[in-house]
From TrEMBL:
One of its GO terms (molecular function) is hydrolase activity. PANTHER family: CRISPR-ASSOCIATED ENDONUCLEASE CAS1 (PTHR34353:SF3), CRISPR-ASSOCIATED ENDONUCLEASE CAS1 1 (PTHR34353). This is CRISPR-associated endonuclease Cas1. It comes from Thauera aminoaromatica. Keywords: Antiviral defense, DNA-binding, Endonuclease, Hydrolase, Magnesium, Manganese, Metal-binding, Nuclease. The gene is cas1. The keyword Lipid metabolism does not apply. InterPro entries: Cas1, CRISPR-assoc_Cas1, CRISPR-assoc_Cas1_C, CRISPR-assoc_Cas1_ECOLI, CRISPR-assoc_Cas1_N.
Amino acid sequence: MLKGRLGLETARIPHADRHGLLWLERGELCVVDGCLHFMAGKDSLTPYIDQIPHQAVSMILLGPGSSVTHDALRLLARHGTLMAAVGTDGVRSYTAPALLPDRSDVARRQAELWGNPRRRIAVARRMYALRLGEILPHRDLDTLRGIEGSRVKTLYRLTAERYRIPWNGRHYDRAAPEATDTPNQAINHAATAVQAAAAIAVQSLAAIPQLGFIHEDSGQSFVLDIADLFRDSITLPIAFAAARKALDGAPDTIDRLVRREAAAVFRKQSVIPTMIDKIKAVLRMEEVDAAGGDSDA
């Protein structure tokens, strides 16, 4: 994410090391000087503001008479802090973002394919076919990952040449994301933007983010699966186009250049609707619609 903006550079604390729930009501959850605050009683004679240790709690329960700003939601999302709108003393639960549509067909199909080892690897192979342009005979996930890794190195080099970008290989240090060169920073920011688009696509279909077919450990595994389908066609062109502008002397920071380029590409190429179609294709939802049930993947 964007270092220095709203405190987003701070490391995320695992939920196992956090406190539980924090109850707030009758105030505004907002960001002040890059930190989360709760402003209460601003229309009363005794207003007050508290700084909220958002990284030290697992979930914020926002009660009646409360509002939340866009920057606060962004900060909570970056640090994996959950939020739900609730009634007084938690007697009602109105929403726990993200809001989802009233459907379960995609989630049920995804869970069925994911839960069957043979069908799960079939979906993974189909994803690799979309990414690599051919159906590989291998059925071992590690082998497929190795083949893709080798081809991605070539893809980076060729795309860099197309945009006249000096390229010394892919380097990324999670502890120091800005320690890398401009092209690698651009790729990091572009990947974040495309993953956000993929998250919207997954949420819009009420698919299950945690059930990935290639990625496994992340709580956004399926989101990462879908984002990777667009690495060569969307992520890298965004990254290297922005890097080219930066190297040509554009005054903006590389993250701002990437975000502007991503916004233009998303609109022009209808990226999110295309991602929605890709999810349906990967899960072969047409089989469900045509047969009223599932066939082998």
